[in-house]
C-alpha cells in the first residue's frame, strides 16, 4: 500500500493503535515485532526477526522467545476491529490449553489472532527447519499433532483485514 501499514490512518488513528489499545487491557506484557524503525514511540520493546525473510513466522518466533510469560497472544496491526469479547474468550480458553485458534463455520483456520503457550515453540522451530513458513500450516500441525491441548473458537463472519487502500476507507 506504499507505506508502513501499521501507521496508516484508519478511522482517525494509526492501525497499530487499535491492537495496542486492546492488548493493553488483556496482556501484562506487549512486544512489537517489527524490522524497521518507528515503533519506539509506543513504549514497548520492539523485536526484530532473528531469522529474516520468512514472513510472519519469523517475527512470531522471535517475539515469543523474548516474551517473559509462558502464555502469549499474537495479533496483527491490520485487524483493527478485533472484538473485545473475542479477545476475552481467547484469553479465557488459554488458561486451560496450549493453543487457542479461530476457525470459521467451514472449519477454515484464521491464523490471527491466536494465543499459545511457549510449549509450541518446538513445533514452530521444526516447521522453520523444514522451510515451511506458513502460519496456517503451523496452527493446523499443532491442532492435529495430539501432543498439545488445543481449543478452537468458532467465529462468525471472520475478521476484517486491512489489505488495500479501499479497505481503509470502508
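^ Assign residues to that structure.
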Amino acid at each position: 500500500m506504499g507505506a508502513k501499514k501499521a501507521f496508516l490512518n484508519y478511522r482517525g488513528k494509526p492501525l497499530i493503535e487499535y491492537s495496542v489499545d486492546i492488548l493493553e487491557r488483556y496482556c501484562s506484557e506487549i512486544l512489537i515485532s517489527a524490522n524497521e524503525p518507528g515503533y519506539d514511540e509506543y513504549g514497548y520493546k520492539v523485536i526484530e526477526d532473528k531469522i529474516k525473510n520468512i514472513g510472519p513466522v519469523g517475527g512470531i518466533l522471535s517475539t515469543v522467545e523474548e516474551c517473559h510469560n509462558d502464555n502469549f497472544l499474537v495479533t496483527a496491526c491490520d485487524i483493527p476491529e478485533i472484538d473485545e469479547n473475542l479477545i476475552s474468550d481467547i484469553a479465557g480458553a488459554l488458561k486451560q490449553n496450549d493453543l487457542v485458534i479461530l476457525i470459521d463455520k467451514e472449519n477454515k483456520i484464521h491464523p490471527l489472532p491466536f494465543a499459545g503457550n511457549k510449549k509450541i515453540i518446538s513445533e514452530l522451530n521444526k516447521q522453520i527447519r523444514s522451510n515451511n513458513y506458513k502460519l496456517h500450516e503451523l496452527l493446523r500441525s499443532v491442532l492435529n499433532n495430539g501432543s498439545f491441548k488445543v481449543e478452537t473458537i468458532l467465529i462468525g463472519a471472520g475478521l476484517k483485514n486491512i489489505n488495500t487502500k479501499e479497505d481503509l476507507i470502508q
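Helices lie at 15-26, 56-66, 84-94, 121-129, 135-145, 165-169.
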